[in-house]
Design goal:
By secondary structure, the protein is of the alpha+beta class. The chain is built from 9 helices and 7 strands. Helix content is about 60%, strand content about 10%. The longest helix is centred in the middle third of the chain and has 50 residues. The chain is elongated, with a radius of gyration of 44 Å.
């Protein structure tokens, strides 16, 4: 037999009722028994007799002889027996009537407790039915918001909030999968078109060399995209690696990896690196800084551009700030740069549109934030703030 919470709650209410009823019967029995003892009755009769004599104008001594001090003749003993028997009858009758009343009330109380338990647990049944009916097709469904602000009301609100987060996460995953498949299909389409040209051309040796170069370029592009997708997936997961690192050291390593590329592009890098100790995943944090530098170089002027990187501590935060020169970015377009697969207006830069989304996601999982401001004279200023160690 499957014992439900409703049955358990009914049994609990019934047990509580039985305990309270038992206490009530025992207390009533104790009160009546103590009030009907021979001593109590003798004192009560003496008080009644004294009051009657005083009302009749008969003087009553201060310490009259108590009833039990009188000689006990046969009549007195008979009266005592009658009084004792009457007391026993009263107590027995009290117990009998109390038990009958208890049984009659229990017959009504147990079904009533079952009904009350069902009413109390009704919101749980609603949430259970809603959870059973949930699927990826109806994540927009919500429980009714009306009702009292009690524990079940807060549970209903929390359940609706969970559904909203699931809906947002599922839609984000769907968009991410669609965009990722599109991005991964692009290099394959380029390779296929280049191969067709080679097969249909009249200079197979030269075009084979061009095909090899194009294959190498597209493989690097696909490898870079897959690496970015893996980093983003890792950032979306719970961070298991927590180490004490200094953002200045990570920034120095990232600068070393892009210095040759910046020099080849004629871009000058100005670095101001101060100690900024934090706790987090060193791989993700290094990728965060590397993405900032990569974007700053990629979306920069062809020659004579600049990139400024600053690592410092401001209050209780560690700050990484990367600013670059370049084309003017509309202020209204800045929020969209943090969306996945958004490249802005520089489509020729051949990026994947995952640089700043990775930066923001890595900052968020480290309980930080990432913001960007369009510079009036062109370029972008990106600021990441993380809690200090």
């Amino acid at each position: 037999m499957n014992v439900t919470i409703r049955m358990k709650l009914t049994a609990l209410i019934a047990a509580l009722f039985a305990v309270l009823a038992g206490v009530l019967v025992a207390t009533s029995y104790a009160f009546v028994a103590s009030a009907t003892t021979p001593a109590a009755q003798a004192a009560e009769r003496a008080d009644v007799l004294r009051d009657a004599l005083r009302d009749a104008g008969i003087a009553v001594p201060d310490a009259p002889m108590r009833m039990r001090d009188r000689p006990r003749d046969g009549v007195t003993r008979a009266l005592d027996q009658v009084t004792a028997q009457a007391r026993e009858n009263v107590l027995a009758d009290l117990v009998t009537r109390s038990l009958l009343a208890f049984l009659l009330v229990a017959v009504v109380a147990i079904p009533l407790a079952y009904f009350i338990a069902g009413r109390v647990l009704r919101p749980i049944d609603e949430i259970s039915r809603a959870a059973e009916s949930m699927s990826e097709r109806n994540l927009d469904a919500r429980l009714p918001a009306e009702g009292p602000d009690d524990e079940f009301g807060r549970l209903r609100t929390a359940f609706n909030g969970m559904l909203a987060r699931l809906e947002t996460a599922f839609e984000s995953r769907q968009r991410f999968a669609a965009d990722a498949s599109h991005e991964l299909r692009t290099p394959l389409a380029v390779l296929e078109a280049t191969a067709d040209n080679v097969l249909e051309g009249n200079r197979p040796a030269r075009q084979a060399s061009e095909l090899a170069a194009e294959v190498k370029t597209q493989v690097r592009r696909a490898d870079s995209l897959i690496d970015s997708l893996l980093t983003l997936a890792r950032a979306d997961d719970v961070i298991h690696t927590r180490q004490q690192v200094d953002l200045a050291d990570l920034a120095a390593a990232a600068l070393a990896s892009v210095s040759d590329r910046a020099a080849a592009a004629g871009i000058e890098i100005d670095a101001d690196l101060q100690d900024a100790p934090v706790t987090g995943d060193p791989v993700l944090l290094e990728r965060l800084i590397a993405n900032l530098l990569d974007n700053a170089i990629r979306y920069n002027d062809a020659q004579g551009g600049t990139v400024d990187i600053r690592v410092a501590t401001v209050g209780e935060r560690a700050i990484v700030e990367v600013a670059n020169s370049g084309p003017v970015v509309e202020a209204g377009a800045v929020p969209g740069l943090f969306e996945r697969f958004r490249r802005g207006d520089r489509t020729e830069a051949a990026g994947h549109g995952l640089g700043l989304p990775i930066v923001r996601r890595v900052a968020e999982v480290h309980r930080g934030s990432a913001t960007a401001i369009a510079r009036p004279d062109g370029g972008l200023d990106v600021r990441v703030a993380l809690p200090l160690r």
